Amino acid sequence: MDYFNYFGNDWTSYVKTKIIGIVLNIFLNKKILIYGLGKSGLASFNFLKNNSDIYLYDDYQSKFKSLNINKRLIEYKNILKKNFDLIIISPGIDVNKCKLSNFLKKNNFKIYSDLDVFYSFFKNKCITITGTNGKSTTCQLMYEVLLKQKYDVRLVGNIGKPILSVKNVKKKTIFIIEASSYQLEYSKIFRSKYAVILNLSPDHLERHKTLSGYVQAKFKLLKNQYKGHVAFVKKNDYLINKQLKSNSYNSKIIKINTKKKNSLLKNIDNSYFFTETNQENLLFVLEISKKLHIKKNLLIKVIQKFNGLKYRQQTLLKRKNLVIINDSKSTSFSSSIGLLKSNKNIYWLLGGVPKKGDKFNLPMKYFVNIKAFIYGKNKKFFNKKLKGKIIFKNFRSLKDALIKILAIIKKEKFKKKTILFSPSAASFDSFKNFEDRGLYFNKLIKRHLDGI
After folding, report:
1. I need a surface site. Which of 93, 102, 148, 374 has the fewest CB within 10 A?
2. Angle CA 295–297–298, to nearest 5
3. Looking at residue 274, what DSSP letter applies?
């Protein structure tokens, strides 16, 4: 934040705020523009509407005129006439590709996120989890572990529930926050006692422009931590280690060795944690649980019963010779790698909007185990990445690709096989989101599986 601009060069006010902490809540009695009226934008409005003078804007303004917010909507032409104290921007807004782009760039020092608003009003213990892959699963598992221990715990953030929509927050309430690079990029004052970076690989480069920009957004979590805070990071991750070597941080940093088996894993026979990816997620939960002094017997009970989340490495069918997995959440090659390593005779369905800079880093020894069935408009991208590595065929649609796979395996009834729907791409070419895509796949399976 540009504090000199914000405080009008009043150095005394700045120092007082830094020393005392929250003498001044910057979101009270201010003129605030909330830009982006999705879940987090509307939650921010409802939270602040009685405390400040709020104005609302969205690139698709007409969609929201039927809601009970008409009086707060501001037209584009009037935004430039207002002198806003602060701007709260929704994570989905790209400063470089939105209608208010020039305005936002000129007022960058005024931009905040809903995480900042939360931090200004609450000082609860938070476990904030980010990374390229596995965020939602790790958050859900951590949430269920704390719930079993009778904690007042709330699961919020990128997993679907805006942090400012939570009611009845008490002093002992613990927040499990899934934080995306988009949220962290816009945050200025948010900090979390426990910060987690699960892993890093190239992602969202169309937004962050460079890999460095993406990594810097994630590491804001550590940068904003105080002495006495704790950060958990993957030990054997190139991008994480590179960032740690070139910067110093105030918090205690615990490196999770995902190559070393935890002794507790010997007591776990939940097949959900047989994949490399989910084992890594579990190792983070185990390390965080140590810090929170979680009882081991209750911890193991939760892990044994954990079924994961819908459309994230979700096993739809498990027979002697056939396994069907719906991993619609997969939006990059790195998020599919764990399943490609851990299953037998894979018929891999992939396609959608590829991630800029995405690389297919699967070891050669797994190539013969996989046949790829590529669907959609971006076949050339996937063809180029898989050429000379994995046998593949192209199809117009997901439905066509699946029907072809089912026809093939019908002839191979006695051979163990896996149908893996792990698209390795965003869903926006044909679907609203990964949930919509996952639901569609489930319906296709139900409709066409007869006789297999």
Report:
1. 102
2. 70
3. G
The pTM of this model reads 0.86
Q: What CA–CA distance (Å, rounded) separates 452 from 449?
A: 6
User: What's the rounded Cα separation, in Å, for the pair 348 and 341?
Assistant: 12
Burial of 319 (0-12, 13-18, 19+ CB in 10 A): exposed
Count the neighbouring beta carbons within 10 Å of the beta carbon of residue 263. Answer: 7
Q: Exposed, middle or buried: residue 176 (CB in 10 Å: 0-12, 13-18, 19+)? A: buried
SS3 of residue 2 by DSSP: coil
Give the ranges where 224-376 is alpha helix by DSSP (H): 238-246, 276-291, 296-305, 333-342
Residues in the chain: 452
Chain centroid offset of residue 89 CA: 17
Greater confidence (6 vs 144) lies with: 144
**Pairing label, strands 314-318, 322-326:** antiparallel
Nearest to 260 by CA among 279, 244, 247: 279
Q: Phi and psi dihedrals of 370, rounded to 5?
A: -130, 135
- In whole angstroms, give the CA distance from residue 189 to residue 193: 13
CA-nearest of 336, 344, 381 to 362 is 336
What are 230-263's pLDDT values in tens digits? Answer: 999 999 999 999 999 999 999 999 999 998 877 7
- For residue 427, give the nearest of 416, 418, 411, 440 by alpha carbon: 440
* Three-state SS at 348: strand
Give the containing element (helix H, strand E) for 252: strand 252-256
